[in-house]
Amino acid sequence: MLNKIEEILGYKFSNIQLLDLALTHKSFDKAKNNERLEFLGDAVLNLIISEHLSNIYPDETEGSLTRMRSLIVKGESLTSVFLNLGIKEFIKLSKGTSNIEHDKKLSIYEDCMESLIAAIYLDSDYKTTRDYVVNIFDTELKSIDKNAPNKDSKSLLQEFMQKKEMDLPEYQSQENGIGAFQSIINLNKKRFVGYGSSKKEAEQDVAKKTLSYLSNNDE
Question: Which residues contact 136 (CB under 8 A, 6 or more apart)?
Fold first, then answer.
């Protein structure tokens, strides 16, 4: 089965167990799953996209590059790219998780995309991973509108707080159930809570609520 996945992906693993781990959801194995790979993959993806955008848009400002990157690494984009790979049926899920509605599996696909990127990175090197990521994200990279307004609440909140010389927010995110996430920001003795079908969506929600409060109470 793993060899078939390699053929579909167009990448041959030296350590094929990394591929197996990247597609193992925590509902299938609570001890050995793709959560740590997801963490690493998120960082690797952000670095690759940041570098790529910096190279092809040398005259753009930091704010503009940040907006473009947010459009590419958002959950919907990761899910779309992963589904286009055509390997969703190979994800290892518990029987119960396998039977949940498609919409509640979107965060699982998003996480698997990040895990797969990390698996390739650990199996090869940065250049190989970068070339692979740029290739599979080709449509997203070519269709990006550099003049699109920034709808990324996390970026807007960060910019607002930096301008006000405030400490940047810390997101306390957790899964409350299959396909349900919660994220919390504690700020000046106030607690803001956001919800979503993925961790990223919940963090965007709580960032939006926090930004709304700060903007309305800005002196």
Answer: 81, 84, 85
Residues 102 and 80 grouped into a single domain: yes
What are the tens digits of pLDDT across the range 36-78? 999 999 999 999 999 999 999 999 988 889 888 988 998 889 9
State which residues form the domain around 88.
2-142
**111 belongs to an annotated ligand binding site:** yes
Among the listed residues 114, 140, 201, 205, the single catalytic one is 114
For residues 199 and 157, state if they share a domain.
yes
Look at residue 99 and tell me if it is in a domain: yes
Residue 28 lies in a domain: yes
Residue 29 is assigned to a ligand binding site:
no
125 is catalytic: no
| 7 catalytic residue (yes or no) | no
136 and 53 in a common domain:
yes
pTM, two decimals, is 0.76
Is 196 in contact with 202 (CB distance < 8 Å)? yes
In tens, the pLDDT along 184-212 reads: 999 888 999 998 878 888 898 999 999 99
205 three-class SS:
helix
Instruction: Assess if residue 137 is contained within a domain.
Output: yes
Catalytic residue among 20, 42, 152, 205: 42
Q: Are 54 and 69 in contact (CB under 8 A)?
A: no
Element (H, E) at 193: strand 190-196
101 labelled ligand-binding: no
